[in-house]
Write a structure and sequence with these properties.
Largest sheet: 7 strands, mixed
Strand order of the largest sheet: 1-10-9-2-3-4-5
Number of domains: 2
Structural class: alpha/beta
Number of helices: 11
Number of strands: 17
Strand content: 25-35%
Radius of gyration: 23 Å
Shape: globular
Order of helices and strands: EHEHEHHEEEEHEHEEHEHEEHEHEEEH
Length: 308
Protein backbone atom coordinates (compact mmCIF):
# COMPACT_ATOMS: atom_id res chain seq x y z
CA UNK A 1 0.00 0.00 0.00
CA UNK A 2 1.40 3.35 -1.05
CA UNK A 3 1.96 6.18 1.35
CA UNK A 4 3.14 9.76 1.15
CA UNK A 5 6.87 10.23 1.35
CA UNK A 6 8.14 12.72 3.92
CA UNK A 7 10.30 14.82 1.64
CA UNK A 8 12.17 16.74 4.32
CA UNK A 9 13.33 13.53 5.96
CA UNK A 10 14.10 11.76 2.72
CA UNK A 11 15.09 13.95 -0.19
CA UNK A 12 15.15 17.39 -1.74
CA UNK A 13 13.31 17.66 -5.03
CA UNK A 14 13.44 20.58 -7.44
CA UNK A 15 11.52 20.93 -10.68
CA UNK A 16 12.25 23.69 -13.17
CA UNK A 17 11.47 22.32 -16.62
CA UNK A 18 12.41 24.52 -19.51
CA UNK A 19 9.19 26.14 -20.75
CA UNK A 20 9.80 25.11 -24.35
CA UNK A 21 10.24 21.42 -23.50
CA UNK A 22 7.22 19.17 -23.09
CA UNK A 23 8.05 16.13 -20.92
CA UNK A 24 7.20 12.78 -22.50
CA UNK A 25 6.37 11.24 -19.14
CA UNK A 26 4.11 12.00 -16.20
CA UNK A 27 6.00 9.80 -13.75
CA UNK A 28 9.61 8.96 -12.93
CA UNK A 29 9.89 5.43 -11.54
CA UNK A 30 12.76 4.40 -9.27
CA UNK A 31 13.47 0.94 -7.89
CA UNK A 32 15.55 1.49 -4.75
CA UNK A 33 17.14 -1.79 -3.64
CA UNK A 34 18.92 -0.39 -0.61
CA UNK A 35 22.05 -2.27 0.49
CA UNK A 36 23.13 -4.86 -2.07
CA UNK A 37 25.34 -6.42 0.62
CA UNK A 38 22.29 -7.06 2.82
CA UNK A 39 20.17 -8.06 -0.15
CA UNK A 40 22.41 -10.88 -1.39
CA UNK A 41 22.16 -12.53 2.06
CA UNK A 42 18.34 -12.62 2.01
CA UNK A 43 16.52 -15.87 1.35
CA UNK A 44 14.74 -14.17 -1.57
CA UNK A 45 16.94 -11.27 -2.76
CA UNK A 46 15.05 -8.35 -4.29
CA UNK A 47 17.87 -7.95 -6.81
CA UNK A 48 17.03 -11.39 -8.25
CA UNK A 49 13.68 -10.13 -9.52
CA UNK A 50 14.43 -6.81 -11.22
CA UNK A 51 14.12 -7.96 -14.83
CA UNK A 52 10.41 -7.20 -15.22
CA UNK A 53 10.33 -4.04 -13.10
CA UNK A 54 10.22 -0.69 -14.92
CA UNK A 55 12.27 2.29 -13.82
CA UNK A 56 15.75 3.20 -12.66
CA UNK A 57 17.46 0.56 -10.49
CA UNK A 58 19.60 2.03 -7.69
CA UNK A 59 21.53 0.32 -4.88
CA UNK A 60 24.36 1.12 -2.48
CA UNK A 61 27.42 -0.78 -1.27
CA UNK A 62 27.94 0.64 2.23
CA UNK A 63 29.21 -2.15 4.50
CA UNK A 64 30.43 -2.82 8.02
CA UNK A 65 33.37 -3.02 8.27
CA UNK A 66 33.87 -0.39 5.57
CA UNK A 67 36.65 -2.36 3.86
CA UNK A 68 34.19 -5.13 3.02
CA UNK A 69 32.86 -2.98 0.16
CA UNK A 70 36.25 -2.96 -1.54
CA UNK A 71 36.68 -6.68 -0.90
CA UNK A 72 33.31 -7.46 -2.54
CA UNK A 73 34.37 -5.58 -5.66
CA UNK A 74 37.70 -7.40 -5.62
CA UNK A 75 35.76 -10.66 -5.59
CA UNK A 76 33.58 -9.74 -8.57
CA UNK A 77 30.66 -7.64 -7.28
CA UNK A 78 30.90 -5.31 -10.27
CA UNK A 79 30.13 -8.11 -12.72
CA UNK A 80 27.27 -9.37 -10.55
CA UNK A 81 25.67 -5.90 -10.45
CA UNK A 82 25.82 -5.72 -14.24
CA UNK A 83 24.21 -9.15 -14.59
CA UNK A 84 21.42 -8.03 -12.23
CA UNK A 85 20.87 -4.96 -14.44
CA UNK A 86 21.55 -2.37 -11.75
CA UNK A 87 21.78 1.13 -13.28
CA UNK A 88 23.39 3.15 -10.49
CA UNK A 89 25.36 2.18 -7.39
CA UNK A 90 26.21 4.53 -4.51
CA UNK A 91 29.46 3.78 -2.68
CA UNK A 92 33.06 4.62 -1.86
CA UNK A 93 34.60 2.16 -4.33
CA UNK A 94 33.97 3.52 -7.82
CA UNK A 95 33.96 1.21 -10.84
CA UNK A 96 32.56 2.78 -14.01
CA UNK A 97 31.53 1.45 -17.38
CA UNK A 98 28.71 2.06 -19.86
CA UNK A 99 26.39 -0.46 -18.16
CA UNK A 100 26.85 0.61 -14.54
CA UNK A 101 27.39 4.11 -13.15
CA UNK A 102 28.99 4.70 -9.76
CA UNK A 103 27.90 7.58 -7.53
CA UNK A 104 30.33 8.59 -4.80
CA UNK A 105 28.72 8.62 -1.34
CA UNK A 106 30.22 12.04 -0.65
CA UNK A 107 28.53 14.51 -3.02
CA UNK A 108 28.52 12.14 -5.97
CA UNK A 109 25.82 12.50 -8.61
CA UNK A 110 24.38 11.20 -11.86
CA UNK A 111 22.12 13.03 -14.33
CA UNK A 112 19.89 11.08 -16.71
CA UNK A 113 17.26 11.98 -19.29
CA UNK A 114 14.02 10.32 -18.23
CA UNK A 115 11.25 11.00 -20.74
CA UNK A 116 12.48 14.52 -21.40
CA UNK A 117 13.08 15.27 -17.70
CA UNK A 118 16.65 15.82 -16.54
CA UNK A 119 16.63 13.71 -13.38
CA UNK A 120 19.64 13.96 -11.05
CA UNK A 121 20.46 11.59 -8.20
CA UNK A 122 22.81 13.09 -5.62
CA UNK A 123 24.39 11.34 -2.64
CA UNK A 124 25.33 13.68 0.19
CA UNK A 125 25.93 12.23 3.67
CA UNK A 126 27.92 15.13 5.10
CA UNK A 127 27.46 18.88 5.42
CA UNK A 128 28.32 20.74 2.24
CA UNK A 129 31.76 22.26 1.77
CA UNK A 130 32.26 25.43 -0.29
CA UNK A 131 33.27 23.25 -3.21
CA UNK A 132 30.13 21.13 -2.75
CA UNK A 133 27.96 24.26 -2.71
CA UNK A 134 29.42 25.33 -6.04
CA UNK A 135 28.74 21.86 -7.42
CA UNK A 136 25.19 22.04 -6.06
CA UNK A 137 24.57 25.32 -7.89
CA UNK A 138 25.78 23.79 -11.16
CA UNK A 139 23.57 20.74 -10.63
CA UNK A 140 20.48 22.90 -10.18
CA UNK A 141 21.26 24.64 -13.45
CA UNK A 142 21.65 21.35 -15.33
CA UNK A 143 18.73 19.41 -13.83
CA UNK A 144 14.94 19.56 -13.70
CA UNK A 145 14.52 17.28 -10.69
CA UNK A 146 17.16 16.61 -8.05
CA UNK A 147 16.77 13.73 -5.63
CA UNK A 148 19.18 14.03 -2.71
CA UNK A 149 19.89 10.77 -0.89
CA UNK A 150 21.22 11.56 2.58
CA UNK A 151 22.46 9.18 5.28
CA UNK A 152 18.93 8.42 6.49
CA UNK A 153 17.58 7.80 2.99
CA UNK A 154 20.50 5.53 2.17
CA UNK A 155 19.28 3.08 4.82
CA UNK A 156 15.73 2.82 3.46
CA UNK A 157 14.34 -0.66 2.90
CA UNK A 158 13.81 -1.76 -0.73
CA UNK A 159 11.08 0.44 -2.22
CA UNK A 160 9.33 1.52 -5.40
CA UNK A 161 9.48 5.31 -5.51
CA UNK A 162 7.38 7.31 -7.96
CA UNK A 163 7.82 11.01 -8.70
CA UNK A 164 4.64 12.34 -10.36
CA UNK A 165 4.82 15.28 -12.77
CA UNK A 166 1.95 17.48 -13.88
CA UNK A 167 2.16 20.71 -15.89
CA UNK A 168 5.94 20.62 -15.63
CA UNK A 169 5.72 20.56 -11.81
CA UNK A 170 6.21 17.88 -9.19
CA UNK A 171 2.70 17.02 -8.06
CA UNK A 172 3.28 14.06 -5.74
CA UNK A 173 5.78 11.50 -4.48
CA UNK A 174 4.84 8.03 -3.28
CA UNK A 175 6.70 4.99 -2.02
CA UNK A 176 5.60 1.36 -1.76
CA UNK A 177 7.23 -2.00 -0.98
CA UNK A 178 8.83 -3.83 -3.89
CA UNK A 179 7.04 -6.92 -5.15
CA UNK A 180 9.20 -9.07 -7.40
CA UNK A 181 9.01 -12.35 -9.22
CA UNK A 182 12.32 -14.09 -8.50
CA UNK A 183 14.35 -15.08 -11.53
CA UNK A 184 15.80 -18.55 -10.87
CA UNK A 185 18.98 -17.98 -12.90
CA UNK A 186 19.73 -14.66 -11.20
CA UNK A 187 18.98 -16.12 -7.79
CA UNK A 188 21.52 -18.88 -8.50
CA UNK A 189 24.19 -16.33 -9.52
CA UNK A 190 23.62 -14.39 -6.28
CA UNK A 191 23.84 -17.57 -4.22
CA UNK A 192 27.05 -18.63 -5.97
CA UNK A 193 28.61 -15.21 -5.35
CA UNK A 194 27.54 -15.23 -1.69
CA UNK A 195 28.91 -18.74 -1.15
CA UNK A 196 32.19 -17.76 -2.80
CA UNK A 197 32.50 -14.78 -0.43
CA UNK A 198 31.65 -16.85 2.62
CA UNK A 199 34.12 -19.59 1.69
CA UNK A 200 36.92 -17.03 1.40
CA UNK A 201 36.03 -15.19 4.59
CA UNK A 202 35.65 -18.38 6.64
CA UNK A 203 38.79 -20.18 5.47
CA UNK A 204 41.41 -20.49 8.23
CA UNK A 205 45.08 -19.69 7.66
CA UNK A 206 48.24 -19.82 9.77
CA UNK A 207 49.16 -16.73 11.81
CA UNK A 208 51.54 -18.11 14.41
CA UNK A 209 51.53 -15.16 16.81
CA UNK A 210 50.58 -11.49 16.75
CA UNK A 211 48.48 -10.22 13.84
CA UNK A 212 50.77 -7.20 13.27
CA UNK A 213 53.85 -9.42 12.91
CA UNK A 214 51.91 -11.75 10.63
CA UNK A 215 50.72 -8.89 8.39
CA UNK A 216 54.06 -7.13 8.08
CA UNK A 217 56.28 -10.19 7.70
CA UNK A 218 54.06 -11.62 4.95
CA UNK A 219 53.98 -8.30 3.09
CA UNK A 220 57.76 -7.96 3.40
CA UNK A 221 58.23 -11.44 1.96
CA UNK A 222 55.83 -10.96 -0.94
CA UNK A 223 56.78 -7.38 -1.82
CA UNK A 224 60.54 -7.53 -1.27
CA UNK A 225 60.64 -4.75 1.32
CA UNK A 226 62.61 -4.45 4.54
CA UNK A 227 60.51 -1.89 6.48
CA UNK A 228 56.98 -0.51 6.84
CA UNK A 229 56.05 2.95 8.11
CA UNK A 230 52.45 3.03 9.32
CA UNK A 231 49.89 5.01 11.37
CA UNK A 232 48.97 3.77 14.84
CA UNK A 233 45.31 3.34 13.85
CA UNK A 234 46.20 0.73 11.21
CA UNK A 235 45.42 -1.86 13.88
CA UNK A 236 41.98 -1.81 15.45
CA UNK A 237 43.18 -4.46 17.90
CA UNK A 238 46.27 -6.64 18.13
CA UNK A 239 45.60 -10.23 19.12
CA UNK A 240 47.64 -13.43 19.12
CA UNK A 241 46.50 -16.63 17.48
CA UNK A 242 47.84 -19.79 15.87
CA UNK A 243 45.28 -19.42 13.08
CA UNK A 244 42.29 -17.27 12.16
CA UNK A 245 39.86 -16.50 9.38
CA UNK A 246 39.97 -13.52 7.02
CA UNK A 247 36.73 -12.28 8.58
CA UNK A 248 38.42 -12.07 12.00
CA UNK A 249 41.51 -10.45 10.50
CA UNK A 250 39.34 -7.75 8.91
CA UNK A 251 38.07 -6.87 12.37
CA UNK A 252 41.67 -6.38 13.56
CA UNK A 253 43.17 -4.35 10.71
CA UNK A 254 42.05 -1.18 8.90
CA UNK A 255 42.71 -2.79 5.53
CA UNK A 256 41.35 0.29 3.73
CA UNK A 257 44.50 2.25 4.70
CA UNK A 258 46.51 3.02 1.57
CA UNK A 259 50.27 2.71 1.06
CA UNK A 260 52.85 3.03 -1.67
CA UNK A 261 56.05 1.07 -2.20
CA UNK A 262 59.08 3.33 -2.42
CA UNK A 263 62.79 3.65 -1.76
CA UNK A 264 63.92 5.85 1.14
CA UNK A 265 67.08 6.54 3.10
CA UNK A 266 67.26 5.92 6.84
CA UNK A 267 67.41 9.61 7.78
CA UNK A 268 64.27 10.41 5.75
CA UNK A 269 62.38 7.54 7.40
CA UNK A 270 63.28 8.69 10.88
CA UNK A 271 62.30 12.28 10.05
CA UNK A 272 58.89 11.41 8.60
CA UNK A 273 58.12 9.15 11.57
CA UNK A 274 58.95 11.96 13.97
CA UNK A 275 57.15 14.79 12.15
CA UNK A 276 53.99 12.82 11.25
CA UNK A 277 53.76 10.60 14.33
CA UNK A 278 54.15 7.36 12.36
CA UNK A 279 55.42 4.03 13.62
CA UNK A 280 57.94 1.75 11.94
CA UNK A 281 58.42 -1.98 11.54
CA UNK A 282 61.39 -3.87 10.19
CA UNK A 283 65.12 -3.52 9.91
CA UNK A 284 65.93 0.07 8.92
CA UNK A 285 69.17 0.38 6.94
CA UNK A 286 70.98 3.20 5.13
CA UNK A 287 69.05 2.35 1.93
CA UNK A 288 65.54 0.87 2.20
CA UNK A 289 62.60 -0.38 0.19
CA UNK A 290 59.54 0.41 2.30
CA UNK A 291 55.78 0.78 2.41
CA UNK A 292 54.72 4.34 3.21
CA UNK A 293 51.18 5.66 3.88
CA UNK A 294 49.84 7.42 0.78
CA UNK A 295 46.20 8.34 0.03
CA UNK A 296 46.81 7.89 -3.69
CA UNK A 297 48.38 4.46 -3.20
CA UNK A 298 46.94 0.95 -2.87
CA UNK A 299 45.05 -0.61 0.02
CA UNK A 300 47.44 -2.46 2.31
CA UNK A 301 45.26 -5.51 1.69
CA UNK A 302 46.48 -5.54 -1.93
CA UNK A 303 50.09 -5.83 -0.73
CA UNK A 304 49.09 -8.55 1.73
CA UNK A 305 46.76 -10.77 -0.29
CA UNK A 306 47.38 -12.52 -3.58
CA UNK A 307 44.93 -11.55 -6.34
CA UNK A 308 42.21 -14.21 -6.55
Amino acid sequence: MKFKLLLLAFAVLILSCTKGVVPRTSKIEVVYIGSIYEDIYKENPVSAGLAKLPGIKITHTKTEPGFMEYYLYRMGLHELLKELEIDYVIGDTMVQDRDLFGIDRSMGYAIMNYGGIRFAVVSSEDSLTIEDQIQWTLLKERSDIIWVIDAKALNLQPSMIDFYIQDRALSDTTMSPIKVETDTARSRKIREFRNHIENRLSRKFYVGGRVDDHLFSLIAERQGINAIVYPENLFVKVIEADSMTLRVLMDCIAFETKFKKTEMEQAAILEICQTEGLLQWGNIKEENVILLPDESGQHIFDFYSKKE
